């Protein structure tokens, strides 16, 4: 019984962190991409991001987080690797990868 209660509160904590990070990220990135659309700037690239998990629920949550954030779309998932289309003209691919891994660590770390 203790194990079920612990797991419930652990997942509740993860979901709360997920929501608290998701909504500000959506609004911030939407604003930045509106500026890019107006200026007609685009430099799309595919990122290959390997996450330190094979849990399908966590991978799906991260893929959803990435896709809901303007300017990024999760194209494919293979094992623990996400393939992400990033339409970003300002940052290099390594910066985008670090930002996604940082979000992962904030939510699930």
TrEMBL record:
Keywords: Antiport, Cell membrane, Membrane, Transmembrane, Transmembrane helix, Transport. The chain crosses the membrane at residues 6-27. The keyword Transport applies. It is a multi-pass membrane protein. One of its GO terms (molecular function) is antiporter activity. GO terms for cellular component: plasma membrane. Signal peptide: none annotated. It is found in: Cell membrane. Its main location: membrane. InterPro entries: Cation_antiport_E. The keyword Iron does not apply. Pfam families: MNHE. PANTHER family: NA(+)/H(+) ANTIPORTER SUBUNIT E1, NA(+)_H(+) ANTIPORTER SUBUNIT E1. Belongs to the CPA3 antiporters (TC 2.A.63) subunit E family. This is Uncharacterized protein.
């Amino acid at each position: 019984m203790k194990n079920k209660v612990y797991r419930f509160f652990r997942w509740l904590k993860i979901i709360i962190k997920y929501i608290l990070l998701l909504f500000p990220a959506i609004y911030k990135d939407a604003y930045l991409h509106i500026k890019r659309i107006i200026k007609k700037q685009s430099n799309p690239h595919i990122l290959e991001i390997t996450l330190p998990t094979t849990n399908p629920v966590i991978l799906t949550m991260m893929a959803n987080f990435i896709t809901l954030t303007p300017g990024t779309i999760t194209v494919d998932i293979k094992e623990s690797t996400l393939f992400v289309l990033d339409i970003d003209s300002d940052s290099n691919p390594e910066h985008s990868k670090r930002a996604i891994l940082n979000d992962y660590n904030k939510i699930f770390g």
